[in-house]
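User: I'm writing a tutorial on reading structure tokens. Could you give me a worked example: one chain, its sequence, then its tokens, then a sentence or two explaining what the tokens reveal?
Assistant: Sure. Here is the example chain.
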Amino acid sequence: MAKALTTTEIMKIIPHRHPFLLIDRVEDYEPGQYCIGYKNFTYDEYFFRGHFPEMPIVPGVITVEALAQAGAVAILSQEEFKGKIAVFAGIDKCKFKTAVVPGDTVRLETRITAIRGPVGFGEAVASVNGKVAVQAVLKFAILQ
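And here are its predicted structure tokens:
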């Protein structure tokens, strides 16, 4: 049975806030295992003013950050990590395959593949209408 989360519920798990909270809703998650969420990018996003005014594109690093936040929901919803912060420790095998533009709803799926003490790994895929936009292996550290 799917476990959905609203924006307010997401903010109870991860510390991110506007304008840097990059998940609008979670369709399903399992603590310590995975998170599937969505971000709706509107033309009003702050970064479109400069990236690029004549052809707005979501910066790739913003999409990677959204994937990391999905992973943070999966990790920080585990009982032993509640109230902590997860930060990037590395990004590997990152590929940008399709541009994300205003009006796109991005599906963010991050699956946790390993946790060793305060360090973990996740495989992440961002897609738009079933087409992969970004994929990466994310490494994170949980701050004590």
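What the tokens reveal: The first helix runs from residue 7 to 11. The mean pLDDT is 96.
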